[in-house]
Amino acid sequence: MASMISRFLVIISYVLLRFLNDVHGGVTSNFIRSEFPSVDILLDNEVFAIPNGYNAPQQVHITQGDYDGKGVIIMWVTPVEPGSNQVRYGTSEKNYDFTAEGTVKNYTFYNYTSGYMHECLVNDLEYDTKYFYEIGEGDSARSFWFQTPPKIDPNASYKFGIIGDLGQTYNSLSTFEHYIESGAQTVLHVGDLSYADRYKYHDMGVRWDSYGRFVEKSAAYQPWLWTVGNHEIEYEPYMDEVVPFKQYLYRYSTPYAASGSTSPLWYAVRRASAHIIVLSSYSPYVKYTPQYKWLEAEFKKVDRKKTPWLIVIMHSPIYNSNNAHYMEGESMRVVFESWFVQYKVDVVFAGHVHAYERSYRISNIHYNVTGGAMYPVPDKSAPVYITVGDGGNQEGLASRFNYPQPNYSAFREASYGHSTLEIMNKTHALYHWNRNDDGKKVATDSFVLHNQYWNKSLRGRKLKKNYVHAVVPTLELNKV
Ligand SMILES: *[C@@H]1O[C@H](CO)[C@@H](O)[C@H](O)[C@H]1NC(C)=O
Ligand SMILES: *[C@@H]1O[C@H](CO)[C@@H](O)[C@H](O)[C@H]1NC(C)=O
Ligand SMILES: *[C@@H]1O[C@H](CO)[C@@H](O)[C@H](O)[C@H]1NC(C)=O
Ligand SMILES: *[C@@H]1O[C@H](CO)[C@@H](O)[C@H](O)[C@H]1NC(C)=O
Ligand SMILES: *[C@@H]1O[C@H](CO)[C@@H](O)[C@H](O)[C@H]1NC(C)=O
Ligand SMILES: *[C@@H]1O[C@H](CO)[C@@H](O)[C@H](O)[C@H]1NC(C)=O
Ligand SMILES: *[C@@H]1O[C@H](CO)[C@@H](O)[C@H](O)[C@H]1NC(C)=O
User: Fold this and answer.
1) Domain boundary at 112, 147, 182, which?
2) Which of 90, 110, 284, 472 could form a Cys-Cys staple with 289, CB 3.0–4.6 A?
3) Ligand 5 pocket: which residues have CB below 6 Å?
4) How far apart are CA 261 and CA 295, in angstroms?
5) Burial grade of 368 (CB within 10 A; 0-12, 13-18, 19 or more)
6) DSSP state of 107
7) Cβ–Cβ contacts within 10 Å for residue 32, how many?
8) CB 147: neighbour CB atoms within 10 A?
9) What global pTM score does this model have?
């Protein structure tokens, strides 16, 4: 580890020197990946396999179930009949000392009828403990496990993965497999899950089901924190299905009430040393709306002495220099950016754009529509904005970036991949974006993220510039 850090430092100082004299944007990677077909994997593929046994539970996934990480929501689907709502669990394998009872629902969507959607909250768990759990009945019972996070502790280390716009193609599979290899403990999913809305009628529900089976290999064993994207809206008047997020809400519950939210679409959790705020790009957020008022109150609850790391996730990026979805996040930026700066958010993750991009620490809160400065400027209190909407869905890559690269953009590349954020302690986190490169993952954009709150040098003296220290492949540096 020490040698890794010192290697970072050498490259960091080299990169920093370059950036100090450079008013242009950062790096546009010229990596061209070999093309996979961007089509969904066929339903009979083993990645969507239906588990054996009559009415066997499928599409098993868990998420955090409370504010501080002692609760887990377990969800699954039984295809034929409701069956049991019970979760049996305990700290040793096949020896379940506890039971919890959940609820079941079903729904129709045009001519699709869902299976039975089970949801069970398992609460008051011990921190930092491996739990085994079993669901289903008789020969069809299935068992899984998960590890609870350490207690809320400013020094706790923890590794998050960040995945966006995943879908269910071969590119999605590559991202998913690389993510599993990464050893991260919790997924922050920045929206656009199944892309079932690329289908019509009955097939939409079918593709929500196949997606649930696709991600089970990870999502049954560690929490995925879900954010809504535009593909979850499913406003389909031609089928008379006009209630936004209907299928998503039946299938993916969130612990929203624990953070005082009144909607499952926006909420916050605390996990180890991180406070994570999940926003909805597709619900009202302007002043006076429920999401706005909730966020105003939630930021006041953040205690950096307990959770040094403040992370915000949303679907539509606030800073994006790609042709795709350009400026779609602008309205949210106008409403929320000043809070991100005021509360010194460490990093904002978004998806939506099917490419990777990272910003410097910049803000545009001085912007005044009736005149004056309009450029984002370096801002040491601002978050780093990272777009990682490159999970690999069937819409393909967003390869047309705007030129010249704006000076707020540090690094961008149109390839599929995922990110990890490994919190080391209250001051340092290691960040990686891992490109899917034909069968292996390649750490392509990496840096040490310094905590925004616990950085005395930032609080004490004024730095001329406060760029994030980029570690990019040396072959790319010549292109700056
Ligand atoms: C839900 O399941 C019950 C019991 O099988 C069935 O009677 C009902 O019609 C279903 N509801 C919907 C909305 O499909
Ligand atoms: C659902 O409706 C569509 C359009 O009306 C039709 O083509 C399809 O066969 C129906 N599927 C089922 C399973 O009922
Ligand atoms: C965290 O670590 C620091 C430095 O090692 C130590 O001074 C502090 O007491 C620790 N805090 C907690 C809550 O463990
Ligand atoms: C915005 O700009 C106008 C025109 O320059 C100025 O009168 C106004 O005070 C500015 N508003 C703010 C909030 O800075
Ligand atoms: C980008 O360039 C503009 C115009 O030169 C300047 O005002 C602004 O501060 C620069 N922003 C950053 C983030 O360097
Ligand atoms: C935090 O982690 C970084 C990177 O591993 C290390 O250099 C630093 O000394 C650690 N700080 C404390 C207080 O342990
Ligand atoms: C504070 O941030 C600066 C610039 O990001 C970095 O060089 C420095 O090491 C950080 N200090 C701490 C204590 O993390």
Assistant:
1) 147
2) 284
3) 360, 362, 375-378, 407-408
4) 9
5) exposed
6) -
7) 10
8) 14
9) 0.91
